Amino acid sequence: METSSLIKVTKTENSKINQVDFDNLVFGKTFTDHMFICDYKDGSWQTPEILPYQPLTLDPSAKVFHYGQAVFEGMKAYKDEQGKAWLFRPEENFERINKSSKRLNIPEFIKEYFLEGLNELLKLDSAWIKSGQDAGNALYIRPFVIATQAGVMASPSTEYKFIIICSPVQAYYTKDVKVKIADYYSRAANGGFGAAKAAGNYAGQFYPTKLVQEEGYDQVIWTDDTNHEHLEEAGTMNIFFRINDTLVTCPISERILDGITRKSVITMAEKLGITVEVRKVTVTELIEAANNGSLKESFGSGTAAVISPIGTIAHKDNVWTLTKPEDCYSAAIKKAILDVQYNVAEDTFGWRYEVK
Amino acid sequence: METSSLIKVTKTENSKINQVDFDNLVFGKTFTDHMFICDYKDGSWQTPEILPYQPLTLDPSAKVFHYGQAVFEGMKAYKDEQGKAWLFRPEENFERINKSSKRLNIPEFIKEYFLEGLNELLKLDSAWIKSGQDAGNALYIRPFVIATQAGVMASPSTEYKFIIICSPVQAYYTKDVKVKIADYYSRAANGGFGAAKAAGNYAGQFYPTKLVQEEGYDQVIWTDDTNHEHLEEAGTMNIFFRINDTLVTCPISERILDGITRKSVITMAEKLGITVEVRKVTVTELIEAANNGSLKESFGSGTAAVISPIGTIAHKDNVWTLTKPEDCYSAAIKKAILDVQYNVAEDTFGWRYEVK
């Protein structure tokens, strides 16, 4: 193993890997032996380090606890049957976390630190990445930035930590998702930070999500906050609708996350010969399509599950159940993307990034 | 000193108080010797503790870092010239933090723990509360709740910490504030959580605030996100306008914090014989009033400064400067509220709460 010249590495003396049951993982609960950490202070990012996975010690007045200055990314590493590990479009994650940071007034990170840090971390914890496309075996990677300066003045922090932690995972959703379209609560404001992958965009969804879960649904499909008439995203997924044989998804905006899986789904669908329209989708149009049978499929896209088929859509007191058509788009697109991710198909678009 | 039966107290062996220059405090940077902390786990709040002020140790996957499940309060304790310490409407802070918690799916806290915890903490750190109304000497109190469960699944935490830390402060703003009215960025969505004192409402303001600061202003006056036509709040302050001899402030809503100082200003202004109207205020109305001279005063209200007079208001390319009238409402209301807070005036409304 080569040692990076950029990153200071301290290896653990006690690997936890033998204590882990890789066939019975709970999503996001088990973490690998190491973590990447880089401090920002005195106006610049300091020397990045890889350390044994360990708790953070922060002053109770640290700004992240009070003012939510925190952004993150979600990405995955996959191991092929030859034992090679691959990342999927990591430069997109790097660019997006910096866009999120900018909106939250967090200093942008350094590309070499990010890519080399990821590479070193994944080499060190390579045994934690299990092959097995059918089981959905992968390593979920969570880069995040938190404001660590002590002090309760409501102003941007002068100190931050950029951290990467990794969690071995299996397939995320097993059943079709039941969603309810928002008609009162909202996720993001016009001129707000809905497009940022920011901590503050998530906490606000938990209560409205709990309300729909009490009615038997899994997630909320968020709509615009003005009229609740435009379908936007699901909070942890972008959303797609197949109307007749056209795949439709709304354009991204300052209210909607620019999903990397979303982009990949659009590109891959077109490669598979599916017509894709990126345009606004109204609740009225969706209801009409659901009622007249032209709504053939719907699914969410995101890093965790790639594609999560939606089986039930509700709006106010109306409920529609979707039956998968024989020429199921979501299954075809999901398989095509997974085949690239697990290195069993040609990487036409240059999406794969080898860990080496 | 009585010992609370509810709270486990561990006193510090090394007070830091002699190291503090109480005449040169930076807002929110110095903390007292002790902190209050109460853990939520296994479905209930555990025994509260008062401990020496100390760092928090959290797993890097703790939900507060990723999903922003965090709420807080801001309040103050004042010492009168007889050496008695007083809180100002603490039950209002308790009710509001629970409202904020509910919107963020955080379990509500227990009133006795809050009030008795505050009381014990302030008794223990009583020497940190300095008298001196003219210097604005006070103890700023920051109750907050953070989600501490380890795990990166985007779902509500099952574990929390309710913490209270205290910081000695002096008068907050010294100069009149320069504000610019938002015409692109927004603070809160309809159906969002703008009314909650939640961490996620603050980080999103830093970047737009930086942009106006680069133009020479201090703060943004936020408007509705649909048309930017209704004046709402300043992010850390509610706002008031004096049009001719009427004091006007917008009603609270799900986008606007229900400020305790705002309520107190309304009540106190009426007691002083000032006509107060709680109604929507449009940008158009404000511009008209600024142009025709009927806008006599404007100020923000909040715990930190009680009242911060606004000296300059800008909207797009227009700038208005306000000169304080001789019968200045803001100064009269501020003095009347401070006189209650520092126990030099009668407490007609039952706002004071003695620490004993």
UniProtKB/TrEMBL annotation, chains A, B:
Catalyses which reaction(s): L-valine + 2-oxoglutarate = 3-methyl-2-oxobutanoate + L-glutamate; L-isoleucine + 2-oxoglutarate = (S)-3-methyl-2-oxopentanoate + L-glutamate; L-leucine + 2-oxoglutarate = 4-methyl-2-oxopentanoate + L-glutamate
UniProt keyword terms in alphabetical order: Amino-acid biosynthesis, Aminotransferase, Branched-chain amino acid biosynthesis, Pyridoxal phosphate, Transferase
Listed cofactors: pyridoxal 5'-phosphate
GO annotation (BP), single: branched-chain amino acid biosynthetic process
Gene Ontology MF: a single term: branched-chain-amino-acid transaminase activity
Membrane-crossing residue ranges in chain numbering: none
Modified residues (N6-(pyridoxal phosphate)lysine): K197
InterPro entries: Aminotrans_IV, Aminotrans_IV_CS, Aminotransferase-like, B_amino_transII, BCAT-like_C, BCAT-like_N, BCAT_family
Top class in the EC scheme: transferase
Protein's pathway: Amino-acid biosynthesis; L-leucine biosynthesis; L-leucine from 3-methyl-2-oxobutanoate: step 4/4; Amino-acid biosynthesis; L-isoleucine biosynthesis; L-isoleucine from 2-oxobutanoate: step 4/4; Amino-acid biosynthesis; L-valine biosynthesis; L-valine from pyruvate: step 4/4
Enzyme Commission number(s) from the entry: 2.6.1.42
CDD domains reported for this sequence: BCAT_beta_family
Family the entry assigns: Belongs to the class-IV pyridoxal-phosphate-dependent aminotransferase family.
Known role: Acts on leucine, isoleucine and valine.
UniProt name for this protein: Branched-chain-amino-acid aminotransferase
